[in-house]
Amino acid sequence: MKKVAEAALDTSTEERIKEAARKVFLQKGYAATRVRDIAEEAGINIALLNYYFRSKEKLFDLVMLEKVQQFAGELRQIMLDEATSLREKVERIAAFYVDLLLAQPELPLFIFSELRTNPEKLVGTLGAKKVVMQSRFAEQLRETLGDTHSHTNPFQLIISLLGMAVFPFIARPMLQIVGEQNDAMFAAMMQERKHLLPQWFDAMLKSS
Questions:
Q1: 136: closest CA among 83, 97, 94?
Q2: What is the Cα–Cα distance from 144 to 108, expressed in whole angstroms?
Q3: Which one of 99, 161, 185, 189 has the largest count of C-beta atoms within 10 Å of its C-beta?
Q4: What is the 3-state secondary structure (H, E, C) of the chain?
């Protein structure tokens, strides 16, 4: 019984540290976060934190991998899906990012801030090249553009789609001030974008 209790305590402490690290890293980023900040947030001393996680970098890598999977894991599945049409993929991408980023508003700034600092590492973690340019989504896009004899680079349209999905959440504080919106109004506008984004993407395809 004593070993079971100790194991439960270990698990509880480890999860508390991870949760504290998630909160502090998302608020401050890697460079501005101190080990002491995480320990204080978790309600433990630094020695105990170092017992479970030997470095700030190790903790950050765990948090970053988790957040990258949240941000890009579902996108990867959508874009590689062989069974859905291009339009269905666009609809799913729009819905996915609206729901995810309304629930975790700090996530896009965290991801892109760290991406700017260490792009090679994160691009490798994301498997971005395969997802973006070698996916079924990219194939369908090239097929559609080929049917219209377009000279538009498919990468341009992929960038535009992801930008339209994510940018409002990066610029959210400014947009709410400019648009005189409270949180509920902003969320309602983002829900509307689930339906607007596929329409806008169709328009871009037709004009390409």
A1: 83
A2: 30
A3: 161
A4: CHHHHHHHHHHHHHHHHHHHHHHHHHHHHHHHCCHHHHHHHHCCCHHHHHHHCCCHHHHHHHHHHHHHHHHHHHHHHHHHCCCCCHHHHHHHHHHHHHHHHHHCCCHHHHHHHHHHHCHHHHHHHHCHHHHHHCCHHHHHHHHHHHHCCCCCCHHHHHHHHHHHHHHHHHCHHHHHHHCCCCHHHHHHHHHHHHHHHHHHHHHHHHHC
How many other CB atoms sit within 10 Å of the CB of residue 101?
Answer: 20
